[in-house]
Amino acid sequence: AGVVILETVIIALALIGSVLHPHLKNPGHVIVEVAFHSLPSVVGALLVATIVAIIVSTADSYLLAPSSALVRDVYQRFLSPNATDRQLVLMSRLVVILFGCLAIGLAFTSDRFFRIYLFAYTIYGVGITPPLVAAFLWKRANSIGAVSGIFAGVATALVWKICNLNASGWTLFGLSIPPLDAVIPAFFLAMFVLVIVSLLTPPPRKESWAMFFDE
Q: Which residues 6+ apart lie within 8 Å of 193 measured at CB?
């Protein structure tokens, strides 16, 4: 319930801010603009703190996921198979620090970092969301369909970005398609491919769903 309320407030602030500040160079900064210029100081400070908390909670996930993969799949598997839990924890912390410093360095090298981050989040979202939704809601989904959906979503997002379709729009069978963010076509195409490939390939074993469903 708390998440729904927070999302509703953020959407409302974005809509109100777009009316109060219609000529922003970057519409993505509308909530920050509202916090600094359209709200009382205390409320604005709380809103900024909320924004920072959301960013930090996302950033730590991005740091922990690759560090865990690197330590478990590379360091432990190939370099130090007999590493103790204490050594693995220490190595994970060092890798997190390394990746954090790298991220900070990249942030200061270009003013386009925020846009790159948003696109990276788009790829991450369209890659993981369709298989995750299918894993919990559709027993017929299988690993082949999930992997196919991931590739389809990521490929669509990359093509959308390379061809700049999110800015210019395009024409299909004589119909003018308005500009869309890459996440929309990528998500729906990933879901479509996941469903079709899952239906055309053998169903998963029942035991593979035991962790999600009670048989």
A: 145, 148, 149, 151, 152, 153
